[in-house]
Design a protein that fits this description.
binds flavin mononucleotide; TIM Barrel; globular; 14 helices; five-stranded parallel sheet; 41% helix; two-stranded antiparallel ribbon
Length: 287
Amino acid sequence: MVHYGDYQMEIYRAGLDGRLPKLPVDFRSLEAWAHAAMPPGLVSYVAGGCGNEHTQDINVSAFERWGLIPRMFVGAAKRDMSIDLFGMRLPSPIFMSPIGVIGVCAQDGLGDIATAKAARKLGVPMVASTLSNIPLEEVASEFGDTPGFFQLYTPTDRALAESLVRRAEAAGFKGIVVTLDTWVTGWRPRDLNQSNFPFLRGHCLGNYFSDPVFRASLADPLDEDMQAGIMQWGKIFGNPLNWDDLPWLRSLTKLPLIMKGICHPDDARRAIDAGVDGIYCSNHGGR
Ligand SMILES: Cc1cc2nc3c(=O)[nH]c(=O)nc-3n(C[C@H](O)[C@H](O)[C@H](O)COP(=O)(O)O)c2cc1C
């Protein structure tokens, strides 16, 4: 894994020749640059949360309350942050969470690929979203030796869910992350005020449009009626799952199955009892 200390020395050394970093390294400036580079509707989608964004703000302040107490005299010249997870040895306990519009956050529309390449370089696994601009097979082909995880938005069509999972297995993904908290999108005032929902504009539906089950559900081929394809996606996107559906989900794959969006301890216990392998505790960033 890249040692950040090497990276900063690289920057300081380049500074001796008068060269500055291409991108700012602090979050605030990075955010400002990103906002300047993206269309306003996309900025709203990425930066906005639901309601008055109270949950989003509280997430940040709650996280700020965590701290680390460093221990001294441990000779930490060579660090080891590695963890064992689902039988894999990972260089750090960090993952890249699934970001549905990451594809269009890059000006060339290849943000999913750029993220997969970063995962390969850093050894930090990418959780690739169902809502990807580029089909999951192409994203996975960029992972190199870094394991990748596929995030599933379970559609109402079970055959389509199964097809997506089969494709993820065949593409070499090492786990399936099922997002439970978004069978309907949040009430997002920034997006509502601009009447902007990227997916209804046909963005980031690459996994659906490349799927044989999805394509077979359309009356006309996609290239003849793209709008009908988008509307069909809207109809099948979100499945409000019940506990009764969990055995079916579990039966879909032998890969590690991780449930995203579980927050209550009772839900966590019940999911583990039903055979899931991991709990991804999250309120979807208050989105
Ligand atoms: C722009 C954006 C798009 C997101 N898209 C997805 C997605 O496609 N699938 C998903 O499960 N979560 C999605 N999320 C939620 C993130 O994966 C993650 O849950 C959130 O950023 C909060 O982090 P946390 O879950 O670690 O608390 C998205 C978040 C953002 C900011």
